[in-house]
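I hope you will forgive my troubling you with a question about protein structure. I should value your view on which stretches of the chain appear to form regular backbone elements. Here, with my thanks, is the record as I have it:
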Amino acid sequence: MNLLLVEDDAMLADALRAGLEQLGASVDWAADAGAARTALVDHGYDAVLLDLGLPGSSGLSVLSFLRGRYDTTPVLIITARDKLSDRIAGLDAGADDYIVKPFQPDELYARLRAVLRRSQGRVSPVLSHADVALDPAKRLVTRDGKPVQVSTHEFLTLMLLLERQGRVTTREQLEEAVYGSSGTIESNTIAVYVHQLRRKLGEKLIGTVHGYGYRIGGPQP
């Protein structure tokens, strides 16, 4: 999960990045509107966490820039502005949700998961295929209703494959989801995680698409 955090408070940004990275996210930080616009042009993100009170230009200008490009990336506004008129302005400008500082990290994470689900066309917070289910909020994997112990890296690998169910996920995409970057780990590391998941959850759960990557669901290669 690749996120853009637009926040001018460096201490708060560091705290939010640390918490989000513990959940397996890769987080880029922009401290002002100009840096945010550049990042949005140069990169694709799964979601944007956007402060409104930025130096030089409001976060609403970033939101307007994003939607003006017909970019539907989910945007969660995080701001100290708690007036009803501010919330309405943010939502009407194209934000997907709005949370007022100070907030509890768990609420932020829950709201982020919700906007991501909506953007993916999902209603249930639980990802599932056949008898395997993964609950991102509880960090729980089950098979036939029984908990299965998986490592953090195995959990993140499985989550991305389930989120992209029916589509091929490349090794590079899995490396990005698990480590926040690609090309910096051993070439067989992802294959090891896939092997462990097959051992714990069934050999047929994850298919190998030779020359491309892995897939859960869809036609057999």
Q: What stands out?
A: The CA atoms of residues 6 and 30 lie 5 Å apart. The longest strand covers residues 2-6. The longest helix spans residues 105-119.
